[in-house]
Amino acid sequence: MSRTIDSIVECKGALILGAGVAGLFTALKLAPFPSLVLAGTRPGMSGSSAWAQGGIAAAVGEDDSWQSHAADTISAGAGLCDPEIAAMVAREAAARIDDLVAFGAPFDRKADGTLALGREAAHSAKRIVHIRGDRAGAEISRTLAERALNSPSISLLEGFHAIELALEDGRVCGLFARHGTGAHARLILFRAPAVVFATGGLGALYAVTTNPLEARGEGLGMAARAGAVIADTEFVQFHPTAIAIGRDPAPLATEALRGEGAILVDEAGRRFMLDVHPDAELAPRDVVARAIHREIAAGHTAFLDCRAAIGETFAQRFPTVFAACKTAGIDPAKQLIPVAPAAHYHMGGIASDQFGRSSLPGLWSVGECASTGLHGANRLASNSLLEALVFGARAADDIEANVTIRPGQGTPPAPQRFAATAPPHVLRDAMTRLVGVERNEAGLSDALAIIDQIERAGGAEPALLNMTAAARLVTVAALDRRESRGGHFRTDYPKTDLEGQRSFMTLADVELRTKAGRETAKALTARNA
Ligand SMILES: Cc1cc2nc3c(=O)[nH]c(=O)nc-3n(C[C@H](O)[C@H](O)[C@H](O)COP(=O)(O)OP(=O)(O)OC[C@H]3O[C@@H](n4cnc5c(N)ncnc54)[C@H](O)[C@@H]3O)c2cc1C
User: Fold this and answer.
1) Confidence (pLDDT) at 485
2) Ligand 1: distance of its center to the CA of 200 in Å?
3) Which end of the chain, C or N, has fewer beta carbons within 10 A?
């Protein structure tokens, strides 16, 4: 990239990109080791974190155990979880909830003062800690941001848009970020002895998503373009019950509603999940999402019926969902909620080890942008905030033990507002239509051709290249996986391959193969001419 750098900022310690739960928690666990947290939007309200509803999974109930939590995680992951990572995360969950309590997170409690626990699909026990019903994400994000603002070793900067990693002798030594837009945009090089990506997921690459528009897969794309190994990108989780009222992003009807007994019906009141899975509405997310997708494809409308299970207590117990329904004139205590599947969570990401270390020296990744082996082919509900906490703490320990603090230098420009824009419509449409709930070879090949065209038309715009790199990695991995498993369903390969493994690739592998593919296609065309 040819660039004019307007200023250079030397960070003393860790440079953390992303101010969701993963980024803020890493910074707090690092303290008093210095960190600079850089984000697009305001810490405390940033990323998917602030939107999380259900809560955090942790085996803290009397009749529960970390072994049972790990077993449920592995079972949801459809054969591709790393069992050691699942055990480690489940074991460390209680300590991380204690950390949040110590930071001031106001978890809901029972009359005896112990944590109130909710149940979600595919968990064999009540183990979801929650706050004010469905406000876990907002409250935890606010608590962590307030705590970070008051920590002298943490600097928080919003309104910076990172576009590329900086490397020196094969080691990540910082990143380039834009500040301001249009003619006023400035390019700042932030240099740091340790860089942590906590950049969230990629749901906004899809036209129908529950994620904020800033979840554009840019961290994944940046790491891939710098040569990092990327894992399991084909596994995108589609939430079955996004509220289908034409909003972008689509508001979410949390899974806890089905945990409380809400049912899925069509326009005639038929409870269609009874014919699909013995657990009906509490079947794994991918099963429910596919069933709703097929109902809609067959011309039906799918509704969540909360009238009997929740009724008049709805507004008090699920205020966020209630408010979303109200904007569309729906009273969920008395009326059905129209629902559709939406891109919700990315199991894949930057391949990271048990300390969040990526394959690039100097780069750690934590939270949704990482692929640690915890989720396998399908995330167990409420395990993602937990993963962000466990790996945030582990990355912090690793950095503190191995990275030397150095003198800081340079002053970043004052933070300013930044509003993420939606990725190109043609890309989002292709991802939803061709790389969505159900996929096949022809559709995935068409999606790759569309991604090629978007890249050609976009010149060398780095933010766009980050998004298309992420989209390409999802699509190529989905094309390569000739089986169906967890969040990945191929209509042309509906069975699960007993030999299936996790997928690891670099962008260079993908580009070589794409080039080879194009040459073969050209040779075949010439031969057949
Ligand atoms: C509606 C909804 C409900 C959910 N409910 C739950 C739940 O109940 N339980 C659960 O465990 N999980 C839930 N999830 C998933 C969970 O919220 C996310 O996986 C988790 O919050 C991700 O946290 P994170 O810190 O990794 O990323 P995020 O919170 O998404 O933060 C990403 C950060 O990176 C920044 N960023 C990204 N790219 C750039 C860039 N190029 N330049 C500058 N900054 C950048 C963003 O500004 C942001 O600060 C839910 C998700 C959604 C969308």
Assistant:
1) 96
2) 5
3) C
